[in-house]
Amino acid sequence: MLVSMNDLLRPAMRGRYGVGFFNAVNVEMARAVIETAEELHAPVMVGTAEVLLPAMPMENVADYLIPMARRASVPVCVHYDHGLTFEKCMEALKLGFTSVMYDCSMEDYAANVSGLSEMVRICHGMGATVEGELGHVGDNEGAGKLECPSDYFTDPDTAADFVSRTGIDALAVAVGNAHGDYTFPPKLDFRRIEQIAARTGLPLVLHGGSGLSDSDFRTGVEKGICKINIFTDMDKAGKTGTEEGLKAGAASVTALIPFGIRAMKRVVREKMELFGCAGRA
Question: N- or C-end of the chain: fewer Cβ atoms within 10 A?
Fold first, then answer.
């Protein structure tokens, strides 16, 4: 069934478990996520991000994800992640996405508050939910890499003001996490997570989940993380599955599809069981 983010994260916050958000830039990825959620009776979030639109345009993502979510036997939120422009967020809403992240985190504080407040007003009027980010989660490499990530960590006191002013439904935090492959084991600031959760009373979001340790996930959820974003691990698993298919003698694209899906499902299952959301739907 197609639901909003609040339908998943509010129960997660009360039950102290995490819900996975998985980007799905093709039908095979979407199948891996939703089929696994159904097998485990787990709530799930699935969608795409603005940076991934070159791989699959948003309208095409909506074409397969919205109907698949509606048919699912478990609650599925279709989420547009890291929307960098107002226009693209509006496009996602018009296409039927039930949640958006409007990422104004690199703007100054006033602009971040202003942009998100307007997005919340529109989305709530349409029955959709909004994720915001305070501080900034950078990348592990490339143009998005931060020289000193701790300069961009989320401040707990500012977070309380931010949530009050914007009315957002979930808050993405910068606490030592980063997007993409970690070049060395990250050190998450769990005390900061706990403080932000206490001061805001909102479900918290951890971006850059691929590559964190099992202990990081468990402790993060215990301290207040309710949504965990996963893409890199699943994306790599799909490639590995395809390579396994080629070695096994698969002679066509259609013959390769099951190999990729099986490999991605293993990652999704592992994360859902680790986050504690299995059996919660």
Answer: N
| Residue 136 domain-assigned (yes or no) | yes
Single out the catalytic residue among 81, 103, 216, 233.
81
Interhelix angle 232-247/27-40, rounded to 10 degrees, is 100
Backbone phi, psi, residue 89, to 5°: -65, -40
Overall pTM > 0.85 = yes
CB atoms under 10 Å from CB of 15, counted, come to: 12
Does residue 81 carry a catalytic annotation? yes
Q: Worst-scoring range by mean pLDDT, 35-39, 148-152, 164-168?
A: 148-152
The answer to whether 192 and 174 are in contact (CB under 8 A) is: no
Using CA atoms, how far apart are residues 225 and 220, in angstroms rounded to an integer? 5
Name the pLDDT band for 178 (thresholds 50, 70, 90): low
Number of domains the chain is built from: 1
The answer to whether 31 touches 64, Cβ cutoff 8 Å, is: no
SS (H, E, C) 184-224: CCCCCCHHHHHHHHHHHCCCEEECCCCCCCHHHHHHHHHHC
Q: How far apart are CA 229 and CA 21, in angstroms?
A: 5
- The per-residue pLDDT for range 75-85, each reduced to its tens digit, is 999 999 999 99
In a domain, 133, yes or no: yes
- Looking up residue 56, the CATH number of its domain turns out to be 3.20.20.70
Q: Locate the DSSP E strands across 29-169.
A: 44-49, 76-83, 99-102, 129-134
Confidence of residue 146 (pLDDT cuts 50, 70, 90): very low
